[in-house]
Write a structure and sequence with these properties.
three-stranded antiparallel beta sheet; 14 helices; 320 residues; DNA polymerase, domain 1; 5 strands; 2 domains; 4% strand; two-stranded antiparallel sheet; hpI Integrase, Chain A; mainly alpha
């Protein structure tokens, strides 16, 4: 069904709207599952009742998380509201309650102990995650043009919610970043001799056909192998796959003997935010650096800090 004419039409409409490849894959996945759940009936013959039944099935039979339900509904809502032009209206569907869990964070010495077990490219990746608050995919997608040594900033392009943002860039990694950029550009020069270069988004590739030869477009963390662009089919070099740093992190955490914590790439972003608030930074500033649409999302880190946030102490401290 992945190559059915109907799903191909949906895929084309998603690309016309300029959505990311990740969103495209996610939407196609859930639309395909929705159709299969309804015994391959055409979506135009179904409506809100079938959608509610499917979401209920995900919750009761597959025990998916609330966020997964939301993603599935977003995909199906796109199918009906945007592609088929058959608005679903009010589904009167209530998501399962989502328990609030505090994010796992690392103290500065713990981050240092993990970074100590890394070197070169891997150490730089996690230094950027912790020092700039990037998500792992945002970090791996960085290009040379996104780094500004003069202003000490990193520009995150097309982040979550298709938004751009600017965040801080630590001078302590300027030298290692310059070295990694130099290595990346050398690789680009070698690729260019073979007529290939870094992958460029489809629309921009047409607008700037020689962009793959310009150092500004080279990835900081290029993949070791060439591949065909998933949309254009052009042979190119994509950025490093996120499975690579995840494996490196697992080994480093074990070597640092931090087995009492669940540490993921995203933990470094959580730790970035927590450390800024611990040091008295304004929560609105932290919100902007993280790219959160709503400050309530950022406020979760104040709960992680507890009494350390904004200088708060327990009333008991005054009488004991």
């Amino acid at each position: 069904m992945a190559s059915s004419p109907f799903l191909n039409e949906v895929r084309t409409s998603i690309r016309i709207r300029g959505m990311s490849l990740r969103t495209e894959k996610t939407y196609i996945y859930w639309i395909r599952n929705f159709i299969r759940f309804n015994k391959c009936r055409h979506p135009s013959e179904m409506g809100a009742a079938e959608v509610v039944n499917f979401l209920g099935y995900l919750a009761s039979e597959r025990n998916v998380a609330v966020n997964t339900q939301r993603i599935a509904l977003n995909a199906i809502a796109y199918l009906y509201n945007q592609f088929l032009k058959q608005p679903l209206g009010d589904l009167e569907f209530k998501y399962a309650s989502k328990p609030q869990r505090l994010p796992e964070v690392l103290m500065a010495p713990e981050v240092a102990s993990i970074l100590k077990e890394m070197s070169g490219r891997d150490k730089l990746i996690f230094s950027i995650l912790y020092g700039s608050g990037l998500r792992i995919t945002e970090c791996l997608r960085l290009r040379v043009k996104d780094i500004d040594f003069t202003r000490g900033s990193i520009t995150v392009r097309d982040g979550k919610g298709a938004k751009d943002r600017v965040t801080i860039f630590s001078p302590s990694i300027y030298e290692s970043t310059r070295n990694i950029i130099s290595d990346a550009i050398e690789l680009q020069v070698r690729d260019n001799k073979e007529g290939v270069g870094p992958s460029i988004p489809g629309v921009l590739a047409k607008k700037y056909p020689s962009a793959y030869r310009q150092p500004a477009w080279m990835f900081l963390f290029p993949s070791n192998n060439l591949c065909h662009h998933p949309i254009t089919g052009v042979l190119c070099r994509h950025h490093l796959h996120d499975s690579v740093p995840r494996k490196v992190l697992k080994k480093a955490v074990t070597a640092a003997k931090l087995l009492n914590k669940r540490v993921s790439c995203h933990t470094f972003r959580h730790s970035f935010a927590t450390e800024l608030l611990r040091n008295g930074r304004d929560i609105r500033t932290v919100q902007e650096l993280l790219g959160h649409s709503d400050v309530s999302t950022t406020q979760i880190y104040t709960h992680v800090l507890g009494q350390h946030f904004a200088g708060l102490t327990s009333p008991l401290d005054a009488i004991t």
